[in-house]
Amino acid sequence: MDFLSNSTHLHILTWVVGIILFIVASGMSPGTKERKIVKMVLRVFYILIIITGLALFIRYMDLNSALYGVKFLFGILTIGMMEMVFAKQEKGKSTQMFWILFIVSLLITMFLGFKLPIGLDFFA
Ligand code: HEM
């Protein structure tokens, strides 16, 4: 599956689309059919984010196994926080805490991704 790890472009595409779908779905009223559909598509994108991330991880982790491991964890955590925002919205509870955790884990994940040596290297 070399095409997945030859560049970071596919990985970037999947998480950018994922974040847009997350913002769209979180703005819809819980329980509506439209929201359920957007969430279903988003879940397909979670899988694509993980597959493309995993392909890069397996190929390059030896370059810096500690940082690659942390990137992996924060990538998964970011997805987890999106799901927590949905869960709280559906229970009618406050989502503020999980929005903050989502944004913090997203920023850490993006920082690590851009710091790691493959693809774009803003923080090298
Ligand atoms: C919403 C979740 C995620 C976001 C926002 C995200 C963000 C990023 C960004 C900004 C980059 C840098 C791209 C570049 O330098 O060209 C990147 C690369 C990478 N991501 Fe993710 N990612 C996410 C999920 C994941 C997951 C779940 C994994 C592991 C299964 C993963 C593994 C990787 C790897 C291994 C790289 C290559 C790092 C490098 O050497 O530059 N990511 N990601």
Order of helices and strands: HHHHH
Fraction of residues in β-strands: under 5%
Low-confidence stretches: none
Number of helices: 5
Number of separate domains: 1
* Termini Cα gap: 27 Å
User: What is the tally of beta strands?
Assistant: 0
Ligand list:
protoporphyrin IX containing FE
Fraction of residues in helix: over 70%
The oligomerization state is single chain
**Mean of the pLDDT scores?**
96
Quick overview of this protein structure:
Keywords: Cell membrane, Membrane, Transmembrane, Transmembrane helix. The protein has 124 residues and is mostly helical.
Would you mind describing this structure in some detail?
With 124 residues, the chain is mainly α. The protein has one domain. It contains five helices and no strands. The two termini are 27 Å apart. The mean pLDDT is 96. Bound molecules: protoporphyrin IX containing FE. The site of protoporphyrin IX containing FE (HEM) has 29 residues, from α2, α3, α4 and α5.
